[in-house]
Design brief:
The chain is an all-alpha fold and about 350 residues long. The protein is built from 14 helices and no strands. The chain has a domain of about 100 residues: Tetratricopeptide repeat domain (Serine Threonine Protein Phosphatase 5, Tetratricopeptide repeat, Alpha Horseshoe), CATH 1.25.40.
């Protein structure tokens, strides 16, 4: 990890650069050498560039300021620019880390203001993107009791009218992943729990059917990891078979999620894999023989995941893994006692 002093210097430099970008953009708006449409397009381009791969919330806040100025300038003469700025604003708002629903509610308002304009003037792709983003916001608002999961699902399904697997495999896979998460979030009667998780598995498999490890590695890894998680806890008369399928899916995800490139995603996946190994017999044909070898493998994964979460300051997940590791060590001690008494 970088020394604290270096991190502070880089943070201050980034903040200064962001403020300079804002001042430069606002100065250009006051210039008389550019037309109104040129000024609007410039503001939109700068705002979208800032929020493409933001390194701080300050960049997103400046992007929102620029989007607001774009909305103000576009109000009467350029409705499509206004709608695009509203969508950009909504995306920036939902990306800023926040503990409460306020930013998400503002994002929802922005998308809902933009959509009628987009439906009249924009391409089907732009409309579908806005619907997908609205679905994400609605889904995030459900825990705050500010939206219903059914509304998020409807937004996703509207976006699928354009984002088919054949023409937009990446977007299609992401939406199917989000739909699966939505299904898993539903609270149903106990007798319907099987259906909820089965629908999630179906959505994840549907998304995976249109993407490949080579062409869409990040989406491929995300769906494989989530498929494995769902299979692992899927109520079934064949739990071992599901766990073996889940194990294969985790290994597929780990072809992309490596310690070098994506350490936190890697740690999450190996921790999930450890959870599975914790309950998987060493010999699936003879489960009565126990799982001491898989427990040892799980211990190694837990230890590595804990080290990574600690290194990167992810204390919440680190505590979960540490607790699981403690339970596993007790289980291993019990197996060692059994072996000693044989």
């Amino acid at each position: 990890m970088q020394p604290v002093e270096t991190q502070l210097e880089e943070s201050n430099l980034l903040l200064n650069q962001t403020q300079i970008t804002l001042k430069t953009a606002m100065a250009a708006v006051e210039s008389e050498t550019a037309s109104l449409s040129e000024k609007i397009e410039m503001l939109l381009a700068i705002a979208m560039d800032l929020q493409k791969k933001p390194k701080s919330s300050q960049q997103l806040e400046v992007a929102i300021t620029l989007h607001n100025k774009t909305i103000e300038l576009s109000e009467e003469s350029y409705p499509l620019f206004k709608a695009r700025a509203l969508v950009g604003k909504g995306t920036a708002l939902r990306t800023i880390p926040s503990q409460g629903p306020e930013l998400l509610l503002a994002a929802r308002e922005a998308y809902e203001l933009a959509l009628p304009i987009l439906e009249e003037l924009a391409s089907p792709k732009e409309i579908a993107e806005a619907e997908m983003n609205l679905g994400l916001v609605l889904q995030a608002l459900v825990p705050f009791h500010q939206a219903k999961m059914e509304d998020a699902l409807q937004a996703y399904k509207r976006s699928l009218k354009t984002f088919s697997g054949l023409t937009y495999p990446q977007e299609y896979a992401i939406i199917q992943n989000n739909i699966a998460i939505a299904y898993l979030s539903f609270s149903l009667a106990p007798e319907k729990e099987d259906m909820r998780q089965a629908l999630a598995v179906q959505s994840l498999k549907e998304g995976l059917g249109w993407i490949t490890l080579k062409d869409h590695p990040q989406e491929y890894a995300m769906l494989q990891n989530n498929l494995a998680n769902t299979l692992q806890y899927l109520p079934s008369t064949h739990p071992v078979e599901n766990n073996l399928k889940a194990l294969t899916a985790y290994d597929e995800a780990l072809k992309v999620r490596t310690l070098e490139d994506t350490p936190l995603e890697y740690a999450t996946t190996i921790a999930n894999k450890a959870n599975l190994l914790y309950n998987l017999p060493d010999d699936v044909e003879h489960p009565e023989a126990g799982n001491s070898q898989n427990l040892l493998k799980a211990k190694t994964y837990y230890q590595e995941a804990l080290e990574i979460f600690t290194k990167y300051g992810d204390l919440g997940r680190g505590e979960v893994v540490e607790a699981a590791l403690g339970e596993l060590e007790q289980e291993l001690a019990a197996w060692q006692d059994i072996d000693m008494n044989k």
